[in-house]
Amino acid sequence: MTLKEFLKSKLFVRHLLLVIATGVALLWLSMSLLDLYTMHGRTIKVPDLTGLTVDEAAEILRDMNLRYVVNDSIFDDFNPKGSIVKQNPEQGSDVKRNRTIYLTKVAILPEKVPMPELIDLSFRQAIALLNAYGLNVGRLAYRPDIAQNAILQQRFNGQDIEPGTLIEKGSAIDLVIGMGLGEDFVEIPLVIGMTRREAISALHAVSLSVGIEDFIDNQNDNPRVYQQTPDPTLQSQILQVGTSVNLVYRSGNLFDFEQFLAGRHTITIPMLFGKTPDEVRAVLEENFLVLGNETFEGNVSRADARVHRQMPDYGENGRIKKGDTVDVWYRSIDDF
User: Fold this and answer.
1) Where in the sequence is the domain holding 81, given as residue range(s)?
2) Contacts of 190 (CB under 8 A, 6+ apart)
3) How far apart (Å, rounded) are the C-alpha atoms in residues 65 and 33?
4) In the prediction, which pLDDT does 142 show?
5) For the segment 101-135, what is each residue's pLDDT rounded down to a tens digit?
């Protein structure tokens, strides 16, 4: 039989078809096994693991046939120690079985920094250096010393702390400051309405200490000063350096400070009509107002002078900011 006749024979055709069918079957089987192995078209949604501990996340991932690796730890003051704060891939990503999820958690051990050398620095320099190291100013104490406003001691937990000592970031360092050899007095700043950080900075800037701190609302909910004692709007504004000022806070997110401050920092315009110059001064001082220009019309003497005009003018609903100026005009008592 010739080759041409063989190629046309039924035997050759049957074998050819069998080879083709076998090849197609093997190809289909290979693709099916490959899909089964790679889980083609089947994915898993990555769960949200933030806020969980590593053990909690491991249990969830194990049940979902996913793996994990903790590849980093960071210092974070706002999340619980040991909790997961980042993940890669992110929540909701589609991944295959056995995919590795990389986790970042908050370090369990707090971050530590070396204690800087503050001795002999000025108080302002010490504050700046502590802030640069991530440390806070604690209690202030003043001691008579020729080195006025210089740091004499740096203390932590009631003990002197040596420069270079490792200390937790965010710790409060107490300072002993020279107050000179005389008695120095400063004006109390009005810190009502300020944030906690602003109020503490304002008090420290004039060498006053922070005393008792009370939080009416959540301590971490944007606290702002609601009350201060002593209050410069209610009593003498002068204190000796080193004196403590007590602060009460309310939440800046829950409490309407704009309305509160508008009512607290203004007063009803007092009526001065008919009053003598001495009475005018007394009324203005009592209401934390400043006497402006005094005009004595007709060369009237102070003894005979009575107010017949004021600016701003008195009104039942009129209000004026504390510390503002009031101008008055006088006439003779005989002209009334």
Assistant:
1) 44-106
2) 228, 232, 233
3) 20
4) 82
5) 999 998 877 788 999 999 999 988 999 999 899 89
* Residue 226 and residue 192 in contact, taking contact as beta carbons nearer than 8 Å: yes
Mean pLDDT over each residue of the chain, to the nearest integer: 86
Look at residue 305 in the predicted model and tell me its pLDDT. 94
First to last CA, the chain: 150
Is 36 domain-assigned? no
pLDDT tens, 85-104?
999 999 889 898 889 999 99
Q: Please, are residues 54 and 85 in contact by the beta-carbon 8 Å criterion?
A: no
In degrees rounded to 5, what are phi and psi of residue 227? -145, 150
pLDDT of 37 strictly over 70: no
Instruction: Say if residue 220's pLDDT is above 60.
Output: yes
- Same domain for 153 and 231, yes or no, is yes
CB 112 within 8 A of CB 59: no
DSSP 233: T
Cα separation, 308 vs 334, in Å, equals 12
Q: Print burial letters for 226-238: b (CB count within 10 Å at least 16), e (below 16).
A: bebebbbbeeebe
On whether both 154 and 280 belong to a single domain, the answer is no
Specify the pLDDT at position 47: 93
Contacts with 234 (C-beta within 8 Å, 6 or more apart), sequence order: none
Q: Do 312 and 318 form a contact (C-beta atoms < 8 A)?
A: yes
In three-state secondary structure terms, 226 is strand
Residues 74 and 99 in one domain: yes
Query: For 160, which DSSP code?
Result: E
Tally of structural domains, the chain: 3
User: 146 near 178, Cβ under 8 Å?
Assistant: yes
Measured between alpha carbons, how far is 23 from 195 in angstroms, rounded to an integer?
78
- Helical H runs in 171-304? 196-205, 257-264, 277-286
236-256 pLDDT, tens digit each:
577 887 788 999 999 999 999
